[in-house]
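User: I'm preparing a small set of examples for a lab meeting where we compare how different chains pack in three dimensions. I only have the primary sequence for this one, and I'd like the structure in token form so I can line it up with the others. Please keep the answer compact; I'll paste it straight into my notes.
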Amino acid sequence: MSATPPLSPLPASPKSVVLLSGGLDSATALAVALREGFAVQALTFKYGQRHSVEIEAAKRIARHYGVWYQIAEIDLTILGGSALTADIPVPRDTDLSVGNAHIPITYVPARNTIFLSYALALAEVIGSTDVFIGVNALDYSGYPDCRPEYIAAFEQMANLATRGGVEGAKALRIHTPLISLSKADIIRLGTSLGVDYSMTTSCYDPGRDGAACGHCDACQLRLKGFREAGIDDPIRYGAAHGVSR
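Assistant: Understood. Below is the structure token output for the 245-residue chain.
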């Protein structure tokens, strides 16, 4: 009687770096990376943002999914230039249905370039060729570093500027699974993947208790997305703001 051959070991999951802000987009991007079979290493930034409550949200999400995560501390307040990193009021109740040729004051100069550079470095160190970022080109509030052409340009640069890109057998890829989706479509996708959006936060100007303001651009886009998706937004909004869901 012949012996049963030993089982072959399962191949190790490929590693990926996921930029995890604590918002609904990045949580959905993380869920997509896991669905695609990646072993996720999440990277969160503490950069002096006024909405630092998102860091705690990122921790909750990472713990929920059982993924490794790291918080990188950098100080973008020394540069300022944004309502998120300087003493500049966060716009409220903007009419988002009207096109705006100007980049919003909530844009943080070069933020995604800085974040992706850190992700690129981490990917090289851990031997990964895959980075996920939850940028979106439809409901992106006018940020220039959320556009497909920007991502393509960064990816090209990354493969020119790194040892992995020059010597590696596989080119580095920046995954943007949400880039062509509306906020409602993102929420539907995340819901289908079991994302618990009560763990997330999107507000640019939360109250001291962490409640979302309901009036900044990020809150308006989030609320609009949940309404269009036909799903209740599970996070808490400040009672004084009279948010319509």
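A couple of notes for your slides: Residues 15-240 form a domain with the Rossmann fold fold (CATH 3.40.50.620). The first helix runs from residue 24 to 35.

User: Perfect, thanks.
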